[in-house]
Amino acid sequence: AAGVIQSPRHLIKEKRETATLKCYPIPRHDTVYWYQQGPGQDPQFLISFYEKMQSDKGSIPDRFSAQQFSDYHSELNMSSLELGDSALYFCASSPPGREQFFGPGTRLTVL
Amino acid sequence: AQKITQTQPGMFVQEKEAVTLDCTYDTSDQSYGLFWYKQPSSGEMIFLIYQGSYDEQNATEGRYSLNFQKARKSANLVISASQLGDSAMYFCAMREGLTAGGTSYGKLTFGQGTILTVHP
Fold it and tell me: In the sheet where A64-68 sits, what is the strand order?
């Protein structure tokens, strides 16, 4: 069965650089979520999209933005990267009213 | 206030034995969902089991069952016949009710996690 695809899997950036993370949800899943998991932490909700419209927003810094495109893939754009942005970033998708399926995550390291 | 509380930072169990991982939650919503995810050392988040607030039966999925006690606001995960491959971090999560035309698009709020170690 198809799973959520995230790219890249690993990313190393310098402080103040920009990063773009991509997510390809499972086909026919109408909702996409982004989560950030810092080292030793539980995942924290960043933002979600329902049918390509932003549906909810969590503790997402102003330096981050996200969108969902017409083909339902989503991108998380992160600018002016800081050391504290180093984390595992998950994208998840869900069909209507069902559990969220997580992608493998993108591990971002900011040096 | 913490919405999801997992009070066991770490648990140990002998292979083939059963283990219960605790989870309590706090919500004023009538409609909500409770989830358990497994995160091995490789990092991926694996969905294990789901319980809806209106479900009268406890959820079961293979060796996993959810002991749902609504009045006590607890949703403990029971793993029967533990295997070495069950060693991982386990997260309890809640999705509070946000529905539009029958579609729920609520974010998940996670607990702090419990590290389970299965001994041979």
Answer: A5-7, A19-24, A74-78, A64-68
